[in-house]
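Record filed here:
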Amino acid sequence: MVSHKPSKQRLLLYNLPKHQRHKLLTAKLSKELQQQYGIKRLAIRKGDTVKVMRGDKDVLNFEGKVVEVNRKTGRIAIEGLTRKKADGTPVYRWIHASKVIITKLDLSDAKRKEIIERKRKAREEYLKKKEQTTEAK
């Protein structure tokens, strides 16, 4: 971000185009998935299983499948995580994407497999360069 003013940073965040906002909807992978795929973060998609790591006691450690992703607000709806309205109808409790970890990936899309592979290769190259620079010193 260019400015240090919080108000300007919020303004830029709220007015981001959807293709850039999608990059903000990422979450850490669980330790097992990090070891399996060799990456640390990935964009959340509908169908992923996530675990809530921050929030109220009734939300904390809740695990469920992502039902909906809202790019406008940067929040996700998780299956089974609902509250009741005054008339008794259940509605989803929206959780910010940064407050969850991904425990199981939905790999039904071949494009997502390509994304994971591309990110893994980029991370390996980064680690090699980092290792070479530390050896040179």
Q: What stands out?
A: The mean pLDDT is 93.
